[in-house]
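Why this split exists: single-chain examples teach little about how molecules sit against one another. For that reason, every record in the complexes split bundles all components of an assembly together and asks for one structure covering all of them. Below is a record exactly as it appears in the raw files.
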Amino acid sequence: MEKLRSIEQFKLFQDKCRREFEEYPLVISVCQGASCRAAGSEEVANVFEKLTTGSSDIRFIKSGCQGFCEYGPLSVVRPSNIFYQMVKPGDAAEIMRTTKDDGEVVDRLLYTHPATGEKLGREHEIEFYSKQQRIVLALNGYIDPLRIDDYLAHGGYSALAKALQVMEPGHIIEEMIEANLRGRGGAGYPAGWKWKSCKEAPGDRRHIICNADEGDPGAFMDQAVLEGNPHSVIEGMLIGAYAIGGTSGYIYIRHEYPQAIETFSAALDKARELGLLGDNILGTDFSFDIDMTFGAGSFVCGESSALMRSLDGQVGEPRDKFTHATEKGFHDEPTTLNNVETWANVPHIINKGAKWFRSIGTKDSPGTKVFSLVGKVNNTGLIEVPMGTSLREIVYDIGGGIKNDGKFKAVQTGGPSGGMLPESKLDLPVDFDALTDAGSMMGSGGMIVMDEHTCVVDVAKYFIDFLIEESCGKCLPCREGLRQMSKILHRICDGEGTLKDIDDLEALGQTVAATALCGLGKSAPNPVLSSINYFREEYIAHIVEHKCPGGVCMSLISYHIVPDLCNGCGECDEACASSAIRTVRGQKRKEGLLCEIDQALCDKCGACMQICKENAIEKRSPAVASRGAA
Amino acid sequence: MEVTGHPEMTEPASEIEREVEELIGKWAGNPSKTIMAMLAVQEKYNWLPQKALEYISIRLGVPKGQIYHIATFYKVFSLLPRGKHILQLCTGTGCHILGSALLAKTLDKRHGIPWNGTSDDGLFTLESVNCIGACSMGPVLVVDGEYHANVTHDRADAIVKRLRKRANKEENNGEA
């Protein structure tokens, strides 16, 4: 590919890409998101690739995450938007044949509505998709992330061309301030104001950084954007650099996302080849490039000042924030750091204007937000909704309610920095301020749904233990405070807690929140404080009754075989790594002898319950020591 | 802490130094690439051999103490040799509430692969990984980079058995 040396050349090339893309009457895509890959979508894609090689009427696309992860591997035929789910390699030929020859659909691969049993063939007929509004994820599923031509064919880099051609840097910043795009990494600081103060800070060099260290465990929004539409991030950063006067760009990607690293690196190369990155971009005097650095497995490096140290090859310890990074950030020079989703929103705002952006979402939180909806919900996956959508709409309409018709217990937003919200808060709109007021936070977009079989004390313990591992250890409140909180939580989960422990947890939590150095430390007690606030009775049940209402805390539960249901097949015996299953003499069953569990040997791993086809294994809490007490 | 030698003028002197030079030579004298260099070394050897770290220290111009600070701070780095097969059990929140931690029990009790440790035969290392972003498919076990979704005790058991069988076969072939 030859470098594009002017904006006119760029526009001609973009037209060419568009024509070439439209030459194909049919496009078949197979999702290559992490969940779909785990479900075997790579093999499916290989078969399609073989079948479509050389075809002049079918374009095959290996796309980024399309969102409906629960039903992966996914494959969509466009322009008719026929949506196939749980596709196996053997299905590829049939999909090809039916769509190509007679325009029919493969019935058995369609999504079935769980309540009505109706087969839904089109993407927009499925509630999971119809209730969403996709801006950042709009092209996921439509383009091949490895082909810059596809992005260009869908209007990619038009915003950059517009910015370079008709907008002054100051004008762009005004537009960004007007749009009020708030930082999607979690804190919600308006990007426009950040850009303005960075531009106005004294200094010759200015750094533009993309935070792609998506550390929230249980969230994969940024991964989906990096893998599905990397050029939107590059374009956003370019516009930012042009507006702010950025001299160097960096992206910091966590190494746990090898596919994202590979895709993004390829995207950078392509952009350089076309002259969209490097010196004199599109023939203007604007020059900018982006360097890639990898994280090495550290949650705290998602904090901006820690990230900047890690970017410099040091350990990621945050520093105090008396001076803003926009004035003294990376290398003590003015720095603008935004996260992946924030950057990916920028081209849309430049293309369609601040007014359009403000027409979506709520007054103080305009735009959309991408969430990864996971846990005990029927339709897990990646969703994008306008700000202000209620948690109930997300969990029940898009998410399709709780798995196995279970009962909703809580939803956790904001990952380890957020809180658990109970059913009474389900009508809360997702919006930066509303979530903070409720004791949680927006966070980067992890949304974990918990049902009655989840223990909130265990989840609080999980987050605190996670944070102990990930605390950089620089400030005492976070390093020692969390450790003490963990000790208490472990004690409660082991059935050895006292009621005073709850008060101590609250006091410690409030102290850590008030005194820790960085944002991560300050928000670390949130899961504990919010769960005590909304689920105090569960803490009390653990302490007073030695009962774990969710049936999770191992010291407080025991496994038992229900004699009436056991058919004596002995599969649990094979599955048990602790040899705790024994047969009851003289109690014959259909397929063998009645089994029972020796409580002294049982490790409580639950393998027997998982394997039993008769559902003859039950959990009891408080734990029952001997088999007699039924 | 002091850096001995001169980054630009250092020549690889041993086999391991030559191997490391190939990976990190492009970053000579650039301390801000320390983590990238260590990641490259770990990817090649599966762990961080002392000789390799010493070479990075000289070649990039970073004190050894700082390198060990980094090696112990970041979760991915290992200062001990890891097993031939790396099992990474996702302990992200999504996987946690679907019971991923319980799988570790089976792997330990049944196969002698300790949590965040290596089996005695050096064949397997079991590590936790914070989140690999396949949250809809939990629990997820990554075996030598390959994702396995919705892993049950049974499936984890089968995966390890298969790898061990293959290893035994290779060993027998080697002897013959």
